[in-house]
Amino acid sequence: MDLTEVLSASEANENETGDSVRLPMPPRVVVGTVPIDRISMDYAVVLLVEALLQRSHLPTLTVVGPNAWLVNLAQDNERFREAMRAADLAIPDGMSVVLASHLLGAPLPERVTGGDLMERMCSEAAHYGFRVFLLGGPHGTALMAGYNLSRRYPGLNICGTYCPPFGFEQDPAELERIRERIAEASPDLLCVAFGAPKQEIWMQDNRSLDVGVMLAVGAAFERQAGLVRRAPRWMQRMALEWLFRLMLEPRRLWRRYLLGNPRFVGLVLRQLGVEKWSGLRRRFARPAHPEANEPKTLRS
Description:
The chain is of the alpha/beta class. The protein has helices spanning 3-12, 14-17, 41-53, 68-76, 78-86, 95-103, 114-128, 141-152, 172-185, 198-205, 220-224, 233-237, 241-248, 250-284; strands spanning 28-31, 34-37, 61-64, 89-90, 131-136, 157-162, 189-193, 213-216. It has one domain (26-273).
């Protein structure tokens, strides 16, 4: 049973049990083949805190963060596409999808990155006493990120960290070891930093874990550990963070941005064209004659 079904069943049984579990899920816009929730940072934080407070009544909630690169990736990778579409919450991680949503007529309120949401949730976790597990990242980064977050938010309970070795997804023994470590730590919030598409697929494959929320955070551990710089605020506001990252790591990221960004623009323009054409066809479709579907009879 997915989250929507659980919420519906809970509301239907509210009068009988006296218990009410309500997580008001936001509306969505689809970019390419990927649904994205029209949600603000504050809304997302409130939603996830409530999910953790009510976790005994809810299944694991998975959170992904679509951006232009992930929308492109979903076009080519069926398993990844299924994981993105199955996620309970899809936050707008890139300014590219925010701009695209305005063009498509269903504007997203703001950009909400997985890393920023993780930090906000760590602040809430310190307040509410939620247990947080940091999974993934290069060796040692989860531990360093956990240390820095704990200093920033006194009272934060980092109940575990683990950086699996390269190629772990092909090793059944390592996959089971990851599950065992998480089960032993019993976290409320699990932050997953394997990078796309590994983290989204792993989260979908491991929804049976007893965790309140799984949050995909990409390279957030490296930033929290102080190993990777974030773009200046003005570049983030101007939708130029991709350019900052490209300047820092041109050999690794040139293909993603210099080839991927034009592809994303083309995908959005094609989608816009299809939607406009469909709207025109509906608008100017010739109305059916009221007698068109009546049985024909011979005149006397």
